[in-house]
Amino acid sequence: MGTLTTQVEAASLAFLFTCAVVCRLAFRQRAGVRAITDLGALAASAAAVALFVRLVQTDPLALTFLGLLVLVAVFGRPLLLAHVKMKHRRS
To answer: What is the pLDDT of residue 35?
Structure first.
């Protein structure tokens, strides 16, 4: 996880995943040209899979760290927001 190349690849994987999700949502919402949004979702998904395989082979620790960050974002954020709302109500 220490090299710049590994960090860039992990960040690229996060970006590709986000891009694929946004393109797929645009396709489902019929926003923009459907062929372009569908192609964007497919291309970003394919690139994300290829990068995931590369990271598994070259630096699985980077994927572990990225997975932990995702878990914190998915489960930690709601807990933090609930705590902030409760603290805000007391004031």
So the answer is: 92
The angle subtended at Cα 69 by Cα 21 and Cα 5, nearest 5°, is: 85
Task: Concatenate the DSSP letters of all residues of the chain into one string.
Answer: --SHHHHHHHHHHHHHHHHHHHHHHHHHTT-S-HHHHHHHHHHHHHHHHHHHHHHHHH-HHHHHHHHHHHHIIIIIHHHHHHHHHHHHHH-
Tell me the average pLDDT of the chain.
89
> In this structure, which amino acid lies at residue 4?
L
Contact 44, 38 (CB under 8 A): no
State the pTM of this model: 0.74
Measured CA to CA, the distance from residue 36 to residue 83 in angstroms comes to: 41
* 80 has pLDDT over 90: no
Task: Give the integer Cα–Cα distance in Å for 6 and 2.
Answer: 7
